Amino acid sequence: MNRLKMGKAPRLPVRSFWRKLWGDIRKDWDLYIALLPGIAFLLLFKYTPMYGIVIAFQDFNIFSGIGDSPWVGFEHFSRLFQTPKFVQVFSNTFIISILKIVLLFPLPILLAILMNELTKMWFKRPIQTIIYMPHFLSWVIVSGLFIDLLSVNGGLVNQIIEWMGGTPIKFFLDNSVFRWLLVGTAGWKEAGWGTIVYLAALSSIDPQLYEAAKIDGANKFKQILHITLPGLVPVILLMFILRLGSILEAGTEQILVMYNPVVYNVSDVIGTYVYRTGLGEQNYSFAAAVGLFESIVGFILIVGGNYISRRFLNRGIW
What we know:
By secondary structure, this protein is mainly alpha-helical. It contains 16 helices and no strands. Helices cover about 70% and strands about 0% of the residues. Helix 4 packs across helix 16.
């Protein structure tokens, strides 16, 4: 993970490639057998359902099925781009994702660097457990916790605000606050878990580099600036490119359990729009068209991000 390909690797002839692959399989056959369940899972639950994409080009009827539903071509995509709701939904998705990238993407990196500097294991392990724990809570539970904390009627945060002479804030009903609430709760839940990748990358940095830096008189800040961060660059780049691919996802599960009609104007994203139109209105073809559009944009962003990275930084995922 922490080693990205540099430059262009020489291409083997097709026959040599398959001969080398077969030799690798014979050499590590047990590892390839262990890989089969994962491949079967991907084929069954990830690739097989892709056949359902065809309903985005049909006027799908659940009783007629895919085979007997009439084809309408790109009609649903035209409707998607012409509806006024789409502009609002797309802008909400983009704004929320950008806020999460700008404010939350650096957070696991910072936490990993701070955790790496802790040397007392009796203190480091409990801290790791505390910051990892929210990841294992479902968004339903997290939503309930923050509703209790931020409620206007008896919520701890609003009680403190009133005690300090302020006016209670309707966190879940205020359009100017709700997006920041989404970003804050997402950071609280996932920032700790995100540190795992960066801590693994930090463990691969040669300790002799730090020793040499100390001899040269570098303090902690300079060691982090000139050794730690450069050592994390490949992994940071990898995670950032992958994050670009999900920029139109924006945390659908989180928003579904936290939003309400009052804040639709600032929180209705592509994922929630697909959910409401697909299941709520039973408009499966239109929802499939919206979902396919989201996937295509995500694919373009990943490929484009990787190209730009290789073009200017000589590093990429492939």
